[in-house]
Amino acid sequence: MSELPSKFDGVDRAAIFLLSLGENEAAEILKHMGPKEVQKVGMAMSSLHNITRTDVATVVSYFLAEAESFTALGVGSDEYIRSVLVNALGEEKANGVIDRILMGGKTKGLETLKWMEPRGIAEIIRLEHPQIISIILAYLEPDQAAEVLAFFPDRVRTDIMMRIASLDGIPPSALTELNAIMESQFSGSNTNIKTSSVGGVKTAANILNNMEGTAEGDIIEKIKEVDSDLGQAIQDNMFVFENLLEIDDKGIQLLLREVSSETLVVALKAAPDPLKEKVFNNMSKRASEMLRDDMEVRGPVKLSEVETAQKEILAIARRMADAGEITLGGHGDEYVE
């Protein structure tokens, strides 16, 4: 197999391969990808520069070698797919992935929502019953669901999040009906749908992790007022800035490579001392000294700016975790010096 240039990651290779095809062929391939994948590959395609003929030839050769190594064995075997994914990811993490893969094209109405802008989704579902809204948001990716949730009033947000956290699977009949409701607005025919395990405390926590500003804290507190145990369970499953302490040193080093120095300076202004030390200890002596100096000379920073910087770093950490690059551990303007 051809050696791949180390400067290209998987997304870059996909972008180079698609650019080497004709427009129609590339378009056909993109039709089989999800919205996030299309966005990632599209951005990579637009940002590639100085790609040599040798680079293209190497990527294409690698693709051909990979393609030739596969057969059609196991195609269509749902149980085989479930077994492989559970063994690879574990029962809990694999469930949501399995449902989405095996449901495939049988959720046309719901899948259409994944390609829409958050405001548009909110407009479509805002008059639905809160239970319907909660199922839809649980089906979406957490970051997209968080953006949709931002368009709802505070009272409605709390109700929806409690319903998401309390979901324990969705009956086939309910999901079939929901899919039909969505498809009626986008056209297309309805088909039978498998049971989905979307929803639950972890889903609620993931959505809140992606909320902007301090909204997630407000929602958690309101949930606790109604159901303290449920609110605490959600909070226990949220990945917050302090949880970076639980990432191993190698993971922290990889994460720091992806974070700009400006963002790091602001984010650490309100970080606990143990986390600051963990960051300093995983940098070179010169880099850590420069970071300490930058933090000292930096004037007062709005807490809202600190939270924004911390959320940016958390978003990078989640992206890297999803890509298997690191493993995440655990589960009014103020000013800080």
Question: How are the SSEs ordered, and which strands pair?
Answer:
Layout: H1 10-20, H2 23-30, H3 35-47, H4 53-68, H5 78-89, H6 91-103, H7 108-113, H8 118-125, H9 130-139, H10 142-149, H11 154-166, H12 172-186, H13 201-209, H14 215-226, H15 228-236, H16 249-258, H17 261-267, H18 273-281, H19 285-297, E1 301-302, H20 303-322, E2 335-336
Antiparallel strand pairs: 1-2
Helix pairs in contact: 1-3, 1-4, 5-6, 8-10, 9-11, 10-13, 11-13, 11-14, 13-15, 14-15, 17-19, 17-20
Offer a few descriptive terms.
3 domains, 2 strands, disordered N terminus, 337 residues, globular, single chain, Annexin V, domain 1, disordered C terminus, two-stranded antiparallel ribbon, 20 helices, mainly alpha
Write structural notes for this entry:
The chain has 337 residues and is mainly α. It has helices spanning 10-20, 23-30, 35-47, 53-68, 78-89, 91-103, 108-113, 118-125, 130-139, 142-149, 154-166, 172-186, 201-209, 215-226, 228-236, 249-258, 261-267, 273-281, 285-297, 303-322; strands at 301-302, 335-336. The chain folds into three domains: 10-68, no CATH class; 78-236, Flagellar motor switch protein FliG, alpha-alpha superhelical domain (Annexin V, domain 1); 242-336, Orthogonal Bundle (Annexin V, domain 1). Strands 1-2 form a two-stranded antiparallel ribbon. The chain is globular.
